[in-house]
Amino acid sequence: MSVQNTPKTFWQKLKFRNWRIFIKFTVVLLVLSVVPLLAVTFMGGREATVALTDQEEINISRLSNSTAKRIEQLLSDNHNVISMLANDQDVITYISQDKVDAVKIDAQVNIDHTIFNARDSHDTIELVSVFDSEGWAIAHTKDYIVGSQWDFREYFQQAIQGNKYLSGILIGTKDDTPGVFGSAPVYNEDGSEIIGALSTKIKGTYITDILASTLESDAGTFSDNMLSEGEVYLINEYGIIMSHSDPDSDWLYHSFGTVSEEDVETILEVKMLGGDCPASDPDCESTDKIAREPQSILALQALGDMLIAEMPTGGSGHLHYCRPANLNSIPPTNTSKCSGEWHSIGYATVVNPVSDTGDGILMVVVDIPEEVFLGEINSFVRQAALATVALSIFVIVVALVVARTLAKPIGHLSQTAQNVENDEPFELADVAGIMELGDEVGNLARVFSSMVLALRARMAELRTIYEIGHKISNNVDLADTLSEVVASLGDVVDFDAAEICLYNHKDEALELYVTNTEIMSDDETVEKVTYNSKKDYFPRLFEDRQGVIVDDIEAYAEYKLTADRSWDAFGPKSYLGVSLGNRGRVVGTIEMISNQVNGFSEDNKRILESISVQAAVAISNAQEVRDRERRLINMEIAIDSSRVEEEVEAVTNREFFQSLKAKSKNRSQNK
User: Fold this and answer.
1) What angle do CA 325, 327, 333 make, to 5 degrees?
2) pTM for the complete prediction?
3) How deeply is 166 buried, as exposed, middle or buried, from its count of CB atoms within 10 A (0-12, 13-18, 19+)?
4) What digits encode the pLDDT tens for the residues 101-129?
5) Which residues contact residue 542 at a Cβ distance below 8 angstroms, ignoring those fewer than 6 apart?
6) CATH, range 475-630
């Protein structure tokens, strides 16, 4: 019965199920590859931008925090030195003697040694000052400062009131260099009166180095480009940038936004930004210098207000802001648009280590343009978009090739299957190219080939079993039949040794008749090798009435071989046996061994079971022929014995023999 294809209409051909498999593969590959690729590229780009921005802002915030902690540690360590010097006996003695104008030479030597040793042993300290109660410098690491009055400085004012103090960064009016000033009061011997103050100045360049090294030490977190474009600066409580990672930055000593008039007065009073001599007196004293006013960066007023508001609470975090192209103009109120470029900053307050309330005195700001790190992701998105277009073209070409590659072997395999269905010859070479494929089509070809070859093998096996059965059925001699069985089995099953035993119903024992190397005598007068039918594997052979495989004799715990067998010399490792039965009667067994573990397969068992049926019939027939011949021989012997008696009787009844008998009797009587 053949199935005919009904021609499809145009509309039926448009349905996906009726497309050619080549077209199906092409369309599916395009849909599954190009569409997700486009979606992932563009949607992933946006997600990556947001994720990268968030991560970089966190990194910037961490960087600002770590920098703030370094500066806090610097200030704390420096003030420990100040406290130690303020309690030094040489300092107390010197101020006490100076107070009464009775400074001794050894006191002068000792104070010089103390302050110079403190400066030289700490590379962060620029100078050490000792003041009397009125603010006059009475000892200093710079001789030209001795004799000048510094009572206008807050660090002196706080110390003389009994407070430990740390300033923000100040510009020295004498040397015009930045630094952080710390101070502590000096008490008299019994601690009842403040007699002066001791102050140190931390080098401003040292703090600048900390800021610059911040960008160099985090190369593992940021790319080199980000570090080179970034900047780190310190602002004080007025929003003035007092230190910068770039010592030549235009922002240095400028303020974010406009400083109030009140704050300007305070800044000018303490000469926070240092001072300049009047034009009429370029070599004036520090006390005569005119204090510098802070210059505002108007465009960053909002940013400055936000950062200044965080300082009293020790705040830290991150934010982004728009840096306008013109920093001297007030930015528009609409913050959604940026006329310049977006920047991300991380900020952290430097907490005053000598303040009981944890006030902030400075704030570290790490400022990096967003374009620096977004440029990489934007470049990646652009490259990904171009790559997507190129890849889409490539995928289309690949889809066509792959679809054709997949469809062609399937069509070839389908044609081969039709040839097999039509009983045409099948050769493995017909699908060899498809079988080499490592995909499901190749596996299908291998399974199909194995199925066809297995079917042929089964048919050949049946023919072999038939030929073997025909061959052993033609023998009527028992010995020849048994020998033919062993030889025939050797053609289809690999074994190292075999035995055929016949069942002796009278003794209920198995008698060894044939091995693969020897035929035992069929003479009844010759004693045969016998095995107990209730031992070894025999009970299972007779119970199952089918083949028995033992893959590993030593590991087979249910039955053990105990009898000496002819195959012991071969070192049996695995076993295959089957019982022989005919007409409900046990005939015997066929057993094989291999000197290898797992020496037999289920195919061997099936072949042996098939042959055993023919062998049982042939052996039964041969036994019947043998028994018939033995009966005939016995009958001939019996017939020959009766004839002898008849001849003897005939001879003894003859006249001559009777006369001799009478004469012999008379002689015995005469005696």
Assistant:
1) 85
2) 0.53
3) buried
4) 888 888 899 999 999 999 999 989 999 99
5) 533, 579, 586
6) 3.30.450.40
